[in-house]
C-alpha cells in the first residue's frame, strides 16, 4: 500500500508532522520475508504511530497495541477508509503477543518503555518469535541493544537506510522476562508521595520541575471547587496530591496514553486515594460535558512524537475552556519561553500569574 495515503487525524497536524516515515518503510521491508510466510493471527504490532506497520504489513488478524488513544483512532480511521479489517486493539498485556511469531514495533525513545515491552514479548510470544523493531537513527542508542539482550539471546542490526535502522530480537529468555515484568510499575517516594510509573511515561518515577511548581501552589486553587481534573495526567501526581490534600474534592485524571493511565491508577492506589481519583483514557476532556468543571490543572506536553509542537497545548486549552464552569479556572504550568499567556487569555479567559521560577510559569485562567 501507499503509506502516503495515511492520515494523522484525529491527532494534531502541522509542519514536520506526518503519518509515516522512512523507519516504517524500513521495518516493513526488513520484515517482508517473514510476513510472506506468516500465518493469520501470528503477527502483532506494538506502538504503530498511525497504522503504517499494521496496514502496510498485509497480515491477517493482527493484534495491535498503541499507547496513544489518538494513534489507535487514527489507525481505525485509516483502516476504514482503505477497506482493511481483521485488526484487534488490545492493552499491553499477554493477550497482545500470546503465541505471536512476528512482532513489528517502533522503537520508543524511552529505554524504560522498551524494557517493559520487550519483557512482555519475551515472556508471552512464541519461542520462535522474531521482533522487528525500528526507528530513526537520531533517536536510537547502543543501550537499546543492551535492553533487548536482557530478555532475548540474540539481537541483530540492519544496515542503515534513509537515516533509519532496524533491530531484530530472537530467542526469548522466558525466566528473565518474567522477573523483569514483575518490576512494573516502578515506584519512588517523594516527600511522602509515592509515584508509580510504567515505561515511557513522562518523567517516570520522578516529579519534574514544572509539576513540582504547579503542585506547590495548587492547595488553595479555587477553594470552593467541588470537582477537579488532572488533564494530561502522566503518572497522576497532581491528582494524588489534590485528592490527599482536599478530601471533599472529586478528582478525575485523564490522559491519551495507556501507560500514563495505568501509572496514574497505580499512583492513586499507592497513596491511598484510589477511591477518590477516577482515571480515564481519553483525548483531552472529551468525556466531560460543557461548563461542568470547577478546576482543571494542566502541565501540557510540547512534543508530538519526536517533533516539537505547541498544537497539543492549544488543543487542551480549547478543551479546558469548553469544560470549565462559569468562574472555574485552568491552572497551567508551562515553559516560560513558550509565552502561552496570550493564548490562555484569548482561549480561556482572564489570566494571572501565580508563580514563576527560572524556567517555568504557573498561571490561572478564569472562565467567565
From TrEMBL:
Residues 193-363 form the Methyltransferase small domain. InterPro entries: ATPase_NBD, DNA_methylase_N6_adenine_CS, RlmG_N, RsmC/RlmG, SAM-dependent_MTases_sf, Small_mtfrase_dom. The keyword Methyltransferase applies. Keywords: Cytoplasm, Methyltransferase, rRNA processing, Transferase. Transmembrane segments: none annotated. Its EC number is 2.1.1.172. Pfam families: MTS, RLMG_N. CDD domains: AdoMet_MTases. Gene3D superfamilies: Vaccinia Virus protein VP39. GO terms for molecular function: 16S rRNA (guanine(1207)-N(2))-methyltransferase activity; nucleic acid binding. Residues 5-171 form the RlmG N-terminal domain. This is 16S rRNA (Guanine1207-N2)-methyltransferase.
